[in-house]
Amino acid sequence: MKHQGQRNDCGRVFCLLALALLFCAPAYAADSSWDTDQTGKPGGPTVESRVADSINADNRNHIITAVYENDLIGSGKDGEYTNGARLTYIDLDAEFPDWAYNIADAVPTFAINDTSSIYYSIGQNMFTPRTILSKTQDPHDRPWAGFLYASIGMATLTDNHADEIEATLGVVGPWSLAANTQKWIHAHVTGSPAPQGWSNQLHNEPALMLAWQRSFPETWAKDIGPLSFSTTPYYGVTVGNVYTFANTGFNIRLRPGSNKWQDTPSRVRPAMPGTGFFEIPEKKWGWYLFAGIDGRAVARNIFLDGNTFGSSYSINKYPLVADANAGFALTYDQLRISYTLVYRTKEFHDQAAPQTFGAVSLGYRF
Questions:
Q1: What CA–CA distance (Å, rounded) separates 210 from 80?
Q2: Are 44 and 328 in contact, with CB atoms under 8 Å apart?
Q3: 28: Cβ–Cβ under 8 A, 6 or more apart, which residues?
Q4: Which DSSP helix (H) or strand (E) runs through 26?
Q5: CA distance 169 to 159
Q6: Domains of the chain by residue range
Q7: β-pair partners for 156
Q8: What angle do CA 219, 225, 228 make, to 5 degrees?
Q9: C-alpha span between 149 and 128 (Å, rounded)
């Protein structure tokens, strides 16, 4: 059943502001006056050359990153997008197969070079109504749903922009094992009440998604005393029977000027996962603060629209959704830990309030 609700005016404003970057970012990237080195001076080396030099000088070319997202480490409330977990292995020195070069040739200004990497991920997401103690589906709330998936992707820097291309295969429904996972965690880890409504979840459905995102690291970079400030706009598109949307936004970072470059900590979709790449600090310790806004124009969200090939519970979604996030990352030698607090505007009509959740990631480079 579908139901109408009040307009998501706040979410629309955030998204429209973010979507404007879709038209601005290419112009900024094409303007050589924004080319800066690590001290913020115009005309410095490109991000590609700096990162390539770092990778070539270090034989620790593998990174494993685990990310955990949960509403209990954000708002402290259980429900809606309630849990996401993703494990990623990145090979910075990968041998690229022929098909990877074919993809690179098909994407304008995408080049396989010394910064290019291949990554592999597995993950599981779960979604529940706000009230998990009812055995019946609330027609005014989101459906119960789980998602189990595996992804393969490529990431590369070309001059001063970065590209990520990712393909995802998985399953939505009981085969995702989301019900089993949540029941076990509630019983043996958190001591939370047992969820009662998983019998209402979306039916089994194979999942396929293709995603591409382009970002412009350090588009604006400025030293402020011993600190360095930079801004990274980005845009991308994801298509598939799970999610179909266009997104754009920007991230801002503040770090010591002596710290080396780091990519955005990994996240779980519909946020475009950062690669989780980081350079090992010369003085062992490193840190940075970050914040950003992501806007999405959503054509399909199976976790609200329901199953693609059959009838299921569903609810009317908003076509525009925005995330605002802020957090920090700490690096010690080969280890990096980060925390991100995410505020997500209402995704569907009748949603009681926007949602807040947290994300913790742990990365190890070896």
A1: 25
A2: no
A3: 34, 216, 219, 220, 233
A4: helix 21-30
A5: 31
A6: 9-365
A7: 163
A8: 25
A9: 18
Length of the chain: 366
Given a contact cutoff of 8 angstroms between Cβ atoms, the answer to whether 11 and 5 are in contact is no
Please give the Cα distance from 316 to 348 (Å, whole number). Answer: 6
The single-letter code of the amino acid at 250 is F
44 near 36, Cβ under 8 Å? yes
- Spatial separation of the C-alpha atoms in residues 157 and 45, rounded to whole Å: 13
Decide if 326 contacts 290 (C-beta within 8 A): yes
Instruction: List the beta bridge partners of residue 157.
Output: 162
- How many other C-beta atoms are found inside a 10 Å radius of the C-beta of residue 353? 11
- The pLDDT averaged over each successive group of 10 residues in the chain (366 residues) is 42 48 43 39 72 87 95 79 94 90 87 93 95 93 97 94 95 98 90 92 98 92 90 96 97 84 81 78 89 97 96 96 96 96 96 94 96
Beta strand ranges found along the chain (DSSP E): 62-70, 80-91, 117-128, 145-158, 161-172, 205-215, 220-224, 227-240, 243-256, 285-301, 320-332, 335-344, 355-365
* Residue written as token pair 């589906």: 137
CB 168 within 8 A of CB 207: yes
Q: What is the C-alpha separation between 276 and 271, in angstroms, rounded?
A: 13
How distant, in Å, are the alpha carbons of 10, 254, 301, 348, 352 from that of 6? 11, 38, 19, 9, 10
Do residues 78 and 72 lie in contact, with contact meaning Cβ atoms separated by under 8 Å?
A: yes
Q: What stretch of H or E contains 231? A: strand 227-240
- Type and span of the H or E element at 214: strand 205-215
Token pair 């949960």 is found at 70
pLDDT at res. 1: 42
Rounded CA separation 248/292 (Å): 11
Interatomic CA distance for residues 269 and 243, integer angstroms: 9
* 120 three-class SS: strand
**Do the beta carbons of residue 209 and residue 150 sit within 8 Å?**
no
Fold (topology level) of 9-365: Lipocalin (2.40.128)
